[in-house]
Amino acid sequence: MAKLWALSIVVLVLAAAPGVPAVPITLITSAVDKGAVCMDGTPPAYHMDPGSGAGKKSWIVNLEGGGWCENVTACMYRKGSRLGSSNLMERQLEFRGILSSNPAENPDFYSWNRVMVRYCDGASFAGEGYDAGSRVYFRGQRIFDAVIQHLLSIGMSSADQVLLAGGSAGGLSAILHCDQFGAFFAGRSTTVKCLADAGLFLDAVDVAGGHTLRSYFGGVVATHGVAQTLPRSCTGRLDATSCFFPQNIIGSIKTPTFLLNAAYDTWQIHESLAPDVADHGGAWRACKSSRLACNASQMKVLQAFREQMVGIVQGAFSRSKGNGFFINSCFTHGQSKVPATWNANGSPTIHNKSIAKSVSDWYFGRAEVRAIDCPYPCDHTCHNDI
User: Fold this and answer.
1) Which of 104, 120, 268, 287 lies 20 to 30 angstroms, CA to CA, from 319?
2) Which of 86, 168, 336, 358 is catalytic?
3) CATH match of 22-372 with 3.40.50
4) Distance of alpha carbon 182 from alpha carbon 252, whole angstroms
5) Which keywords fit this entry according to its UniProt record (predicted)?
6) Do the strands 370-372 and 324-332 form a parallel or antiparallel pair, or are they unpaired?
7) What radius of gyration, in Å, describes the C-alpha atoms of the chain?
């Protein structure tokens, strides 16, 4: 195993908010010497709620999401926010859903060591570069390595069970880094698995016949120098932008992985399938505000998008017995860190099984979980955004 970095840290503790315990931020200040920095050069950061009892040797490492920046101008703007500078991040967070310490809300993982890795690089923890003119650092890969090495040094190296998770851009990151994460535990008896929530971004054709998200991801890959950090199993056969799309990676991941995604992912509907730049005349504006306002032609497009996602999941990814999935027919984006959707008492279900139960059954090997919902509007258990 790689030599552990001796990282000094600064912990800032603030008062907890009423009702839900607040988890303080930790800055990994020595990571700066390794060039593992946010876009403005500040140290990477995380929040950790230590495990207890039977969970002391089990860890969830959750990678925060928050979109991307596709060119230097956009990244300069982003570095002046919490998504580009640890100086501007909240000093405490409430952990909910899969990160909750409440056994009623999170029955299978509440006692684990639960970590939220803050997102401040703009490329799903995958960039490697620096723009001298704007003084913007693209060091997502170094941040990922530094944080994991640090967590190993404070106890995760002796873990019995670990789960790398993430939502949205963090879900994409969990996919990109799943096997890298597994490699940190090579030669150990540790159970290592990955969970991507709302991270299955499709290389979809937009309503004008273009590829809006492909163009955007192409900018992210080029600006951040992502090509050099992508899985070689993909870049050996496809271009780098294609390898930033999960559909071209998930079939070759060796570490067991679970995909949690809404078949009608609202972020992708708004920004990839029917973005404003492709919606000439605003024909999709009402539909994007409320699914009830979608006409028959628009619903046909949405159903085709779902079919594309289902086909991808049922392809090479499903051939690995260790993989699992929960693809429900909700209009939402991100379901693992929200009590209303994660909690077994109010979660969307497929075949009467909640999201929390499905993920737990898969992780602990209690049952095979390969759940795909019937098409909209059959599911009446959704918590829909639109």
Assistant:
1) 268
2) 168
3) yes
4) 14
5) Cell wall, Cell wall biogenesis/degradation, Hydrolase, Secreted, Signal
6) parallel
7) 20
